[in-house]
Design a protein that fits this description.
This protein has three helices and nine strands; from the N terminus they run βαββββββββαα. It is of the alpha+beta class. Strands 2, 3, 4, 5, 6, 7 and 8 form a seven-stranded mixed β-sheet that branches. The structure holds zinc ion (2 copies). One zinc ion (ZN) is lined by residues 139, 141-142, 144, 151, 153.
Length: 171
């Protein structure tokens, strides 16, 4: 997802439209494995604002993650936007300094916007990912997927809806 900006750099106020479609490898984030089941589509524009290159884009991705309760794969569509300013590196980094520290600092005439695309996807993932709102999860004793079958472990299952009803009758 590299933008060639040599023409843009010369002319303040100038804009450039772009569109990328790229397969992303799966990654680990916050203990989850995130796989991409469709290419990530990014479209937007880059503008030479005086202080740097302002990139605005829309990001669309189809990702596959495990349900938090039963671990079955769930496909979710993520649609988000990213707005970031990239600034040109002013000097050669000092000895030992990590020059890749911030991906928003670029050198030469190419900007790689992949890092802001990743960020916008990860920041917009739901906190809780469930295959369905009433997923029963996995039995903590025997590991049976309780959506598929019942197990014989003794458990006191309390349906939260029944709990509410009980409270209601008390009043
Ligand atoms: Zn589930
Ligand atoms: Zn069980």
């Amino acid at each position: 997802m590299q933008l060639e900006i040599s023409g843009l750099k010369e002319n303040k106020g100038q804009s450039l439209d772009f569109r990328f479609e790229e397969d992303f490898p799966s990654l680990n984030f916050g203990g989850r494995t995130i796989a991409f089941d469709t290419p990530v589509i990014v479209d937007g524009s880059a503008t030479n604002v005086e202080s740097g290159i302002l990139v605005k884009c829309r990001v669309r991705a189809g990702i596959v993650v495990d349900c938090d309760r039963c671990l079955r794969p769930v496909t979710i569509g993520v649609e988000t936007t990213a707005v970031e300013e990239f600034v040109e590196a002013k000097s050669v980094p000092a000895e030992g300094e990590d020059e890749d520290r911030d991906c928003r600092v670029f050198k030469g005439s190419v900007i790689d916007i992949k890092c802001i695309v990743y960020e916008s996807i990860l920041l917009n993932l739901p906190m809780k990912i469930l295959c369905s709102s009433d997923c029963r999860g996995i039995c903590s004793s025997c590991g049976t997927d309780l959506n598929l079958e019942k197990c014989s472990c003794s458990r006191q299952d309390v349906d939260p809806r029944m709990e509410k009803l009980k409270d209601w009758f008390k009043e």
